[in-house]
Amino acid sequence: MHVRTFRLPFKGFGLHAEACWAGYRERSDQRYVLFLHGGGAATSSEGTRYLREDLAEHGVASVALDFSGHGRSGGHMVDASLDRRCEEALRLVDSLQPVRPRAIVATSMAGHVACRLAETLRPEVLVLFCPAAYEADAESARFGEPFRTVIRATRSFEQSPAFEALRRFEGHVLCFYGTQDAIIPREVQRGYATACASARLADFRMFEGVGHKLHEWLAGQTALRREVVDRIKAALGAAVA
Which part of the chain is the Serine aminopeptidase S33 domain (predicted)? Predict the structure, then answer.
């Protein structure tokens, strides 16, 4: 397995990204899986390193981004928003043109971002770990108190832009939740399930007795890690069949 790190200029600071692949050398024309991490202050691309390494061993290349204010990227989280995270992900993808991601793997808050990006990037597969969803007003709200104010006032997620985008997605959706997730409302979990009506395949997997920190838990579960990799590989294979 090989790893290459690089930085991208963005609004006066640098975004950190990391490519991971197997084989003798990285190919410029290689289709890749885009990894987007969640929203907690301590989160970064490191949280999914185990999965990216597992996929690389099976011939699946990936590129992971640290959003601004996270990990090794510059900037401040309080200056960002959901809209800004979409911009940052597109900045990364544009730097890799003409290649587009074959799949987006997104966690928690990034589930919303991934659904919004799907209409522009048109991946074949969405892989969502404990994905969140937000109302339209939340997308431009700066993280911190403005964002918290919007989500505290949210009464319904039915018209979430994430669900609207997902209803138009015709690729494959893999969605993983823990049965004890106390962060993502049940209404949001049901919303993801019902929004996949147009998907070519929708596969939902619930991990019994697990909370919101799926990656932290899954990294230590050898058999289940293998299951997750197999599901992703199967979805990617079916998408190009």
Answer: 31-136
